[in-house]
Write a structure and sequence with these properties.
- It is built from ten helices and ten strands.
- By secondary structure, the protein is α/β, with parallel strands linked by helices.
- The protein has a six-stranded mixed beta sheet, sandwiched between helices. A four-stranded antiparallel beta sheet has the order 2-1-4-5, with helices on one face.
- The longest helix is centred in the middle third of the chain and has 21 residues.
- The structure holds adenosine-5'-diphosphate and magnesium ion (MG).
- The site of adenosine-5'-diphosphate (ADP) has 10 residues, from helix 1.
- The site of magnesium ion has 3 residues, from helix 1.
């Protein structure tokens, strides 16, 4: 179980994440919503260790992650989608994903120079990388350099890298942002499939309410860095306060959406 306790970060005079206490259970998908600048990405950065908390702590399965680097947190099971800058732009999709697979499989097993085992593992690593690439529908482009891909395809590769790490906790920050209408379903289907694995904890920052409504078991709302609502999707989405103040939707359109949703 992932848990944050009183997690807070201050940038100068601005409190970007303000005392957020929240626990996320395996087998659940929690959507994190809130207006731009609410602190959603910063909350992820605090969990993954990209930035240090001013106060408060993150726990994974009861152990504090205080003082752990982002890569140590990744090894502990926290999976954050890679940014494009983490990719090797001149390597192919397959080579990038294979490196990620290799990173997760490297352990005592890799010590020593056993050429035969390196050679035979290479095949296993490639097969696993191909599986993950297939899951994001990128097989036809797997030999292209990442730099030559469209923005949407690069985002799929980011998700493939995250899959390759086989984390316990998946953090998706607007995974379909910048994708075309026909690209987004590939990622959403993948998240749907991940959800069926009850050992996984999924956190999803997503603006599209129809997506949130369908995928989330729970919604938390951040506003000015603070957690202001937490509950079942239907309840949180329908709450007029959340609709008007935090999602910038008028009460009338909420009503229309609710009626449309039932039809
Ligand atoms: N590294 C940083 N230094 C200073 N301010 C930051 C930094 N990162 C985020 N912020 C500020 O923190 C607030 C929350 O930002 P962010 O977490 O990106 O919001 P969201 O993802 O919900 O849109 C914003 O006001 C943003 O300008
Ligand atoms: Mg953000």
């Amino acid at each position: 179980m992932l848990e944050t306790k009183n997690l807070t970060v201050r940038f100068g005079g601005h409190v970007a994440v303000n005392g957020v206490s929240c626990a996320f259970q395996p087998g659940t998908l929690t959507a994190i919503v809130g207006p731009n600048g609410a602190g959603k990405t910063t909350y992820f950065n605090l969990i993954s260790g990209q930035i240090a908390a001013t106060s408060g702590e993150v726990f994974l399965n009861g152990a504090t992650l205080a003082g752990m680097s982002p890569s140590a947190r990744t090894r502990a099971g926290l999976g954050r989608a890679f940014q494009l800058t983490n990719l090797f732009p001149n390597l192919s999709v397959l080579e990038n994903v294979r490196l990620a697979v290799q990173a997760t499989r490297s352990g005592p097993h890799w010590r020593g120079l056993n050429l035969w085992s390196i050679w035979s593992d290479h095949g296993a690593l490639t097969r696993r990388a191909e599986e993950v690439i297939d899951a994001v529908s990128m097989t036809d482009k797997q030999h292209r350099p990442v730099a030559a891909l469209s923005h949407g395809d690069q985002r799929k590769v980011e998700v493939a890298l995250l899959m390759a790490l086989e984390p316990e906790v998946f953090m998706f920050d607007e995974p379909t942002a910048g994708m075309s209408l026909d690209e987004a379903p590939v990622i959403l289907n993948l998240i749907r499939k991940l959800k069926t694995d009850k050992r996984k904890t999924i956190l999803l920052v997503e603006h599209k309410m129809d997506v949130v409504r369908e995928l989330a078991d729970r919604i938390i709302v951040l506003h000015n860095g603070a957690l202001v609502a937490d509950g079942e999707p239907a309840t949180v989405i329908a709450s007029p306060i959340v609709q008007e103040a935090y999602l910038g939707v008028s009460a009338a359109s909420v009503q229309a959406q609710a009626e449309g949703g039932k039809a």
